[in-house]
Amino acid sequence: MTNNRISNLFQIKLPIIQGGMIWCAGWELVSAVSNAGGLGLLGAGSMYPEILREHIQKTKKATARPFGVNVPLLYPETEKLMQIIVEEGVKIVFTSAGNPKTWTSHLQEKGIKVVHVVSNTKFAEKADLAGVDAIVAEGFEAGGHNGREETTTLELIPLVRRVTAKPLIAAGGIATGRQMFAAMILGADAVQMGSVFVASDESSAHKNFKDEVIKAKEGSTSLSLKQLTPVRLIRNQFALEIENAELAGATKEQLAQLLGHRRAKLGMFEGDINQGELEIGQVAALIDKIKPVRNIIDDIMLEYRVTKEQTSHMKFDF
Fold first, then answer.
1. Contact (Cβ atoms closer than 8 angstroms) between residue 29 and residue 197
2. d(CA 209, CA 267)
3. I need a surface site. Which of 164, 204, 213, 274 has the fewest CB within 10 A?
4. Nearest to 97 by CA among 128, 67, 66, 76
5. Using an 8 Å Cβ cutoff, are 290 and 198 in contact?
């Protein structure tokens, strides 16, 4: 992997990035991923500024390897979060849910590598023009907030590769070595995985949520709240209430009222599997065991290498 553009950009051993998931990506998960050779990302979207500072400091004590912070730009305290990131000497920031021009130059002037998450080619081009160091192209299979276009990863990666030469990270529906290999064949330089790391020992997700991820089957998740911001959820009682409201023609305001506040924390961090918002990707159907991060990454890389070796000997007679 020494010639890999993402590994070289971040100075990591393996081109595996852990998603900066709200309520799941605290310092224990992040340091475990980085120590195993990938790149861990703190999920700043669920942290007040001083809580982020605490998690950065704890991560620095737990690993000497690179790690980063994921910052959704739609949050009101983004400026404070960025200030803390600079003060604490974090060298990698992933931004999402906003205009990449807002912070990219400022962070790069401080010696920080900037990556922006996109769900379509229009935003990929904007990220390229903003001068980001790399781009994450996230397909609609992904858990959490998603693109309105519902473009799958299989389609999105080659589409984004057409419009940018930047280092490209594939995300959405990737949890195995074979899926990682497929993403690389499509044009990605690395992969970002979220759901598989939710189901890790080190994830800060509540055990009830982890158990729901393990139980998830094909069709257990759905894309909801497209009138507000599309989000992929496990189909629990709350998700069905949202679905019924949408079918009944609920207005944007009515859906916002039904969503309320702290719904994601209630489900993913506090463990209310009925009324909480359980954000997870379609790939949860392939995840059947909670494991330590190192085992997860070792299994992914073994399958990746076996797949690569197997395909190198393939012969096609058509």
1. yes
2. 7
3. 274
4. 76
5. no
Q: Tokens 């949520």, residue?
A: 209
CB 134 within 8 A of CB 168: yes
Q: In the block, which residue shows the tokens 């190198």?
A: 312
CA-angle at 277, arms to 276 and 280, nearest 5°: 130
Distance CA 187, CA 155 (A): 11
pLDDT of residue 75: 84
Q: Among residues 145, 148, 91, 139, which one has the least CA distance to residue 115?
A: 91
Integer Cα distance of 138 and 169 in angstroms: 8
Q: What is the pLDDT of residues 201-245, one digit of tens each?
A: 999 999 999 999 999 999 999 998 888 888 999 999 999 999 999
Task: Please identify which residue in the block is written with the tokens 């800060």.
Answer: 204
Split at pLDDT 50, 70, 90, the class of 190 is very high
The domains of the chain are located at 5-205+287-308, 216-282
Q: Are strands 113-118 and 92-96 parallel, antiparallel or unpaired?
A: parallel
pLDDT at position 1: 45
3-state SS, 64-116, equals CCCEEEEEECCCCCHHHHHHHHHHCCCCEEEEECCCHHHCHHHHHHCCCEEEE
pTM: 0.94
CATH 3.20.20.70 fits 5-205+287-308, yes or no: yes
Number of residues that this document lists for the chain: 318
pLDDT band at residue 2 using 50, 70 and 90 as cut-offs: low
Contact 197, 203 (CB under 8 A): yes
- 44/29 Cα distance (integer angstroms): 13
188: left (phi over 0), alpha (psi -120 to 50) or beta: beta
Give pLDDT tens digits for 9-27.
999 999 999 999 999 999 9
